[in-house]
Automatic annotation (TrEMBL), chain B:
Name of this chain's protein: GPI-anchor transamidase
BP GO annotations: attachment of GPI anchor to protein; GPI anchor biosynthetic process; proteolysis
Keyword field contains Signal: yes
Signal peptide: 1-19
Pfam families on file: Peptidase_C13
Subunit structure: Heteropentamer. Part of the GPI-anchor transamidase complex, consisting of PIGK, PIGT, PIGS, PIGU and GAA1. Interacts with GPAA1. Interacts with PIGT; this interaction, via a disulfide link, stabilizes the expression of GAA1 and PIGK and links them to PIGS.
Domain of life: Eukaryota
Annotated keywords: GPI-anchor biosynthesis, Signal
PANTHER family: GPI-ANCHOR TRANSAMIDASE (PTHR48067)
Pathway membership, UniProt: Glycolipid biosynthesis; glycosylphosphatidylinositol-anchor biosynthesis
Length: 562, 383
């Protein structure tokens, strides 16, 4: 009897110890070995960023020239005013525009500069005196009798960051300083909206965050035309020669790019890297047959058939396989001798003076007619030198449009100076930098918040250290970018926003984040039950048996004591 | 009395104004896309699944014909039927018996072939999470203004699609992948077509906006194949895609056919299964969506009205080249086939070296055996 008692004891001890090992060592071990490595992410900061409150600051300096203010008013200036404009875009996004306006009178050197005969020269000499920092504006208020501006022009916008504003007739006599400032304020505001940022531009830049209902159709066209912000762009110039037997074309593309295109790209360097290449394609036809128009004695392509021109050519263009940057294609098509001259007609059947068209987010095509360079009795093939200045003029205009430099028509009474040799005015660059910074910040915040949401939702994804590091650096760059925008440092804001977007894209598109581990619950049971059930059933049953014996013994003890 | 006339005048002004804007902006507000992409996937291998490859190639052919260039098409074929040993007509894939239409063509570009067609690669293409060394032709480089057509075919079931006979993708994973694409704004609108058994189950779980889906059969139904070709020996196409191809052959790039026509393709009388579609997540009315919005690539164009007058003379680039010439490096070809590294030849020893360990050991062994067997007394004969 004792041996069965010992046996039973031994059995109970064995069961208890196995259960202890399974529960104390086995379960934690299984838990630790099946958990996925998830590095720590700054989730609270990311949630703060989801609620975006952007403040854009612009510094404006208003300089009163001689003749616009009376001497006693001059004593009250200099003064500084600041103005805030709040807009709520949606429940997560709000914008505030702050204009810090400083009023002062002109210095003697500035007065000399304003005495130049034409506005363009005045602009140049004003620029020589002082260089305005990125993101700021200087407005010179000139008296009504000035000869700088033509009769019907109220405002002249220069090539750098200056504008000339003519004071109105009603402000000639008997007004106080407050009246003068009130009179100037709406015009300065309109000027600011043209030269720095306007609400429509900034909300268009936020399109990644905020899906706006199609309001203004022109703004939709604008937002569809320009490429989205990207760290780099590839530009390809192609010369299409469908008839090498007749035309032997020479184009000095390297020199033309160096002279005309490179200055623009150098100026745009804070925004993105550009790489340029060029090629010549022989026997490349347009996909559409042009029709002969008797009234113009030329072949014409009408506006509806232009849409079908691009596709057959695109297949032959090729692309730089090494990078994933967006590509801008600029094609120069020289029609063959049998179909020359070739003109493009717009919807109103008028000939287009530039003889070129562009496609949003793709590039541009220009048709260059060469039949005027040679007479009818000439021995083919003819050597033709292409006038690169004319060609590059068109391509440069198309490049500006495709990169997002909007040349919307200025309001009446405004005269905008033609952009200089670099193809881009300084204030246009500032405008582009503002919208690009806002766009980068918006895209980076949506990327980071959706990444955090994704990682939170799917518990099975492994989060490596490098991803956590990218996310943290993206968050810090975003916070810095927002802070710099608030204080008005446009250059730094753009740089931080670019770093933020690079880091966030690298984190989001990391190849290790692919979630293939979707297990429906019944599959999870199907995997674990055959492994654990055969082991757990004997342990559980023996534990139950021990528990029932203990209970039995206690009941016996109770009946004994009773 | 005056008010209605005033109102009608205002209305006339508005109409005139909007007509002007319409002229200026053109086709911009018919659809919001500027480029088109297509991802065409055939998921089954083996010779008897010829019809799935023919399905995918026929959609590829239509899409290319209607204008989408190869750089914007990601074609994934799990097996090579054209060069299969059992193909009596090599380098062809036919879609109709009597070998009427060769859908393989001359210029097909397959981006993912054979064993590269896996669930992982498909999801990586969709979400963009490819390793940095992936070439451009294997990536889906769409942006927020791209319309994407996704076509899947193969063997499927209720809620899954089989890849390569060894793995499957579930409808939840597909829906999550589309959601990630939406979060990152990788598409403007997406058309999803699937030709498998119980195909409608694959689009049941979609929840992202701007998705339209078509399937060849409902849950519980099988998609059937069209007809076998006795010379090739297998079924050439599936019914749904056969009638889809017939429909698409009538579409040309300027066609105005819309999605409602596409929904009518292959009714139950022809297809035996009931094709289904899902448009509740799509924002536009399907009747206003053109077929060419997804299957073709009609570009929006704008006339360039402004030019910049450039008057600077062109800088001569030769000046820069002069400085470069002084520091010309000489280049030489690297040995293309370094034979010595491949074959691991030992270099020939020029000087005499004492014999190797092996030779020494061998001779010692021979001597030991000799003297052991014949005794040490023979030593004196040697020395």
């Amino acid at each position: 009897m004792a041996t069965t008692e010992v046996e039973r004891r031994r059995g109970q001890l064995a069961a208890l110890s196995i259960a202890a090992v399974v529960i104390i060592i086995g379960v934690p071990l299984w838990w630790r070995t099946t958990e996925t490595y998830r590095a720590w992410l700054p989730v609270s900061q990311i949630q703060e960023l989801a609620n975006l409150e952007l403040q854009l600051s612009a510094d404006v300096e208003v300089v009163f020239a001689r003749g616009t203010v009376t001497p006693e008013q001059q004593k009250k200036i200099p003064l500084t005013l600041s103005q805030d404009d709040e807009h709520v875009v949606d429940e997560d996004t709000s914008l505030r525009y702050r204009y810090e306006t400083r009023y002062r009178t002109a210095t003697i050197m500035e007065e000399d500069a304003l005495n130049q005969p034409t506005a363009a020269e005045a602009d140049l000499s004003l620029h020589m005196l002082s260089e305005s920092p990125c993101g700021s504006l200087v407005v010179y208020v000139v008296p009504e009798s000035t000869s700088l501006l033509p009769e019907d022009v109220e405002v002249y916008i220069g090539q750098r960051r200056t504008a000339l504003l003519r004071i109105g007739t009603q402000m000639r006599v008997g007004r106080t300083l407050d009246q003068l400032l009130d009179h100037l304020e709406p015009r300065i505001k309109k000027l600011l909206q043209l030269m720095s940022f306007s609400h429509t531009d900034i909300t268009a830049a936020l399109s990644d965050r905020v899906r706006l209902s199609p309001g203004n159709k022109e703004s939709i066209a604008d937002s569809m035309r320009a490429f989205k912000s990207s760290p780099g762009y590839e530009i390809t110039f192609s010369l299409l020669n469908p008839d090498p037997k007749s035309h032997r074309l020479h184009w000095d593309i390297e020199g033309a790019v160096q002279t005309f295109i490179q200055p623009l790209l150098t100026k745009l360097e804070p925004l993105a890297n550009f790489s340029i290449d060029s090629q010549i394609l022989y026997y490349a036809m347009l996909g559409v047959n042009p029709r002969f128009d008797n009234s113009h004695n030329a072949y014409t392509l009408n506006a509806d058939s232009l849409a079908h021109v691009i596709n057959p050519v695109e297949a032959r263009l090729g692309s730089n396989a090494a990078s994933s940057n967006p590509v801008l294609n600029f094609l120069l098509y020289v029609p063959d001798a049998n179909h020359s001259p070739l003109y493009i007609q717009d919807r109103k059947k008028q000939q287009v003076p530039s003889n070129a068209f562009h496609s949003p987010r793709w590039g541009g095509i220009m048709v260059y007619n060469v039949n005027s360079f040679y007479g009818p009795d000439v021995a083919f093939p003819v050597d033709i030198n292409i006038n690169m200045a004319k060609v590059m003029g068109v391509f440069l205009a198309q490049l500006r449009l495709l990169l997002g430099v909007q040349s919307s028509t200025p309001p009446p009474g405004f005269l905008v100076a033609p952009c200089g040799s670099s193809g881009l005015a300084d204030w246009e660059l500032d405008r582009l930098m503002w919208s690009r910074s806002v766009e980068n910040i918006a895209t980076a915040t949506t990327t980071i918040t959706s990444l955090a949401q994704l990682l939170d939702q799917i518990g099975n994804i492994v989060i490596n250290d490098n991803i956590a590091q990218q996310v943290s650096s993206a968050v810090t760059s975003l916070q810095l970018a927002v802070a710099e925008l608030e204080s008005g440092n446009l250059g730094f804001a753009l740089q931080y926003s670019k770093e933020a977007i690079l880091a966030s894209e690298r984190a989001f598109f990391d190849p290790s984040l692919l979630h293939l581990l979707y297990f429906p619950d019944d599959q999870k049971f199907a995997i674990y039950i055959p492994l654990f059930l055969p082991m757990c059933v004997p342990i559980l049953l023996s534990l139950l048996k021990i528990a029932s014996e203990v209970r039995q013994r206690r009941r016996d003890k109770q009946t004994k004591t009773d | 009395m005056k008010i209605p006339t005033l109102l009608s005048l205002f209305a006339a002004c508005f109409v005139a104004g909007s007509a002007n804007i319409e002229e200026n902006v053109g086709q911009f507000f018919s659809s919001g896309h500027t480029n088109n992409w297509a991802v065409l996937v055939c998921t089954s291998r083996f010779w008897f699944n010829y019809r799935h490859v023919a399905n995918t190639l026929s959609v590829y052919r239509s899409v290319k014909r209607l204008g989408i260039p190869d750089s914007h098409i990601v074609l994934m074929l799990a097996d090579d039927m054209a060069c299969n040993h059992r193909n009596p007509k090599p380098a062809t894939v036919f879609s109709h018996k009597n070998m009427e239409l060769n859908v393989y063509g001359d210029d097909v570009e397959v981006d993912y072939r054979g064993y590269e067609v896996t669930v992982e690669n498909f999801l990586r293409v969709l979400t963009g999470r490819l390793p940095p060394s992936t070439p451009r032709s294997k990536r889906l480089l769409s942006d927020d203004r791209s319309n994407i057509l996704i076509y899947l075919t193969g063997h499927g079931g209720n809620g899954f699609l089989k890849f390569q006979d060894s793995e499957e993708i579930s409808n939840v994973e597909l829906a999550d992948a589309f959601e990630q694409m939406w979060q990152k704004r990788r598409y403007n609108e997406l058309l999803f077509i699937i030709d498998t058994c119980q195909g409608a189950s694959m689009y049941e779980r979609f929840y992202s906006p701007n998705l339209m889906a078509l399937a060849s059969s409902q849950v519980g139904e099988d998609s059937l194949s069209h007809q076998p070709d006795l010379a090739i020996g297998v079924h050439l196409m599936d019914r749904y895609t056969f009638y889809l191809l017939e429909f698409l052959e009538d579409i040309h790039p300027a066609s105005k056919a819309n999605m409602n026509d596409l929904f009518k393709v292959c009714p139950k009388s022809q297809c035996v299964s009931t094709p289904g579609h899902r448009t509740d997540l799509f924002l536009r009315d399907p009747g206003s969506v053109l077929i060419t919005d997804f299957f073709g690539s009609v570009r929006k164009v704008e006339i360039t009205t402004e030019t910049i007058s450039l008057t600077d003379p062109i800088k001569q680039v030769e000046e820069i080249a002069v400085h470069g010439e002084q520091e010309k490096e000489t280049y030489s070809y690297v040995d293309q086939l370094p034979v010595s590294e491949i074959i691991h030849q030992k270099p020939k020893q020029k000087d005499w070296h004492p014999p190797d360990g092996f030779i020494l050991g061998l001779w010692t062994l021979i001597l030991l055996v000799f003297f052991k067997s014949y005794g040490a007394k023979h030593l004196k004969h040697i020395f």
